[in-house]
């Protein structure tokens, strides 16, 4: 028996007494890892300290000895990953390598940091807005440092690009890499490095189309006040995008739609989550419904894929808020509806991947799916970052999406 395994007296019958469980030396790291998985699965607002403690097999009191609140856990985890990203960039900047090699090392480091922290990267992407303002500034500075470092290497390789164009390409590359946090597909790390690295290289190696001369923000169709079903849907999505789903009440939605009382909402929807599910079903059906006509009306898979790219970019630009809310708030949809939405999304990605493989037969099914997810995420990230700025207009974003998919 090792010293410290148990306490009690030795007697003629052996050892008596209760077993002493030593606290693991890495308990804080275990807590951080467990919280990242929990937050990644259910979102910041969907997890309690009791949930995290239960997952670790410890009491809530033991958890509070390490972290004073759920927010402290959330903040520390997001900023830790932000620091991991900046550290991977800093490590890649060492030595006297050509810009192309240094950029490749940076991208490999970012892919490694994303894989290692996949659950928390999803939080950084979609729930960073729930950080308090001073903490949000720190996270933004960390992300900004990564983009600046990428900009600097790109500027050496593509000196003809303006600073805004450099930032657009850097944002696109980071979106491609961090897209792996938006899905659960798996690839061997070496294959993933090669695949995503190649996609990023494709983004940097071709001349961009001319920037749009005016804003390409589509005019949203007006919804008559009498058409409350549609009006509620749009106003709710706008509020979810602006404040986050947990911070919007049925009363807020009713007021935005010009209804006199929250009770009036229930004539059209069963509740807030029902509105969210209806919006998501519409978004998923739109992507799915575009596939058949594209394949039927084009001569080959490459043309069909090109048509789908244009449609996806147009839909994302026309419904920017819905595109972001779909990824950020998916965990708040009722479980049964989530299963339906996931199936629609899986089948859509599968069909896109099939077209990609017909254009690029050297890719495996899993690799093609990774590229489809990467292309989707990149478009949404560019929409978030640049809004209606003509520097990242529809033609350019569609061009970059094609580069990811076609290579």
TrEMBL record:
Keywords: DNA-binding, Transcription, Transcription regulation. This is TetR/AcrR family transcriptional regulator. It comes from Nocardia lasii. Residues 1-23 are annotated as: Disordered. Residues 25-85, 226-287 form the HTH tetR-type domain. The lineage of its organism: Bacteria, Bacillati, Actinomycetota, Actinomycetes, Mycobacteriales. Residues 48-67 bind DNA. Pfam families: TetR_N.
């Amino acid at each position: 028996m090792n010293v410290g395994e148990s306490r009690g007296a030795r007697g003629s019958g052996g050892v008596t007494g209760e077993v002493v469980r030593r606290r693991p030396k890495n308990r804080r790291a275990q807590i951080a890892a467990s919280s990242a998985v929990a937050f990644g699965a259910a979102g910041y607002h969907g997890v309690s300290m009791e949930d995290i403690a239960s997952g670790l097999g410890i009491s809530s009191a033991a958890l509070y000895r390490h972290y004073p609140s759920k927010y402290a856990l959330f903040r520390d985890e997001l900023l830790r990953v932000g620091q991991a990203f900046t550290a991977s960039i800093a490590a890649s900047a060492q030595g006297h390598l050509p810009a192309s090699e240094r950029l490749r090392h940076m991208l490999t480091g970012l892919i490694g940091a994303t894989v290692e922290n996949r659950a928390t990267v999803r939080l950084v992407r979609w729930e960073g807005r729930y950080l308090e303002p001073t903490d949000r500034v720190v996270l933004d500075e960390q992300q900004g440092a990564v983009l600046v470092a990428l900009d600097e290497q790109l500027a050496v390789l593509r000196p003809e690009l303006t600073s805004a164009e450099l930032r657009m390409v850097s944002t696109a590359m980071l979106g491609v890499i961090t897209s792996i946090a938006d899905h659960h597909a798996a690839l061997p790390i070496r294959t993933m490095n090669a695949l995503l690295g190649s996609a990023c290289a494709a983004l940097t190696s071709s001349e961009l189309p001319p920037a749009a001369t005016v804003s390409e923000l589509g005019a949203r169709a007006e919804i008559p006040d009498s058409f409350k079903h549609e009006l509620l849907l749009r106003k709710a999505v706008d509020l979810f995008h602006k404040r986050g789903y947990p911070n919007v009440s049925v009363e807020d939605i009713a007021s935005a739609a010009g209804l006199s009382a929250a009770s009036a909402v229930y004539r059209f929807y069963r509740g807030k989550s029902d509105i969210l599910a209806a919006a998501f079903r519409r978004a998923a059906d739109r992507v799915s419904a575009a596939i058949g006509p594209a394949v039927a009306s084009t001569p080959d898979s490459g043309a069909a894929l090109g048509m789908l790219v244009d449609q996806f970019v147009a839909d994302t630009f026309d419904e920017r808020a819905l595109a972001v809310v779909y990824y950020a708030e998916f965990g708040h949809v009722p479980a049964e509806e989530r299963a339906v939405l996931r199936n629609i999304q899986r089948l859509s990605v599968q069909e896109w991947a099939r077209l990609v493989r017909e254009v690029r037969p050297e890719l495996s099914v899993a690799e093609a799916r990774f590229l489809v997810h990467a292309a989707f995420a990149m478009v949404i990230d560019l929409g978030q970052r640049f809004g209606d700025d003509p520097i990242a207009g529809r033609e350019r974003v569609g061009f970059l999406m094609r580069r990811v998919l076609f290579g």
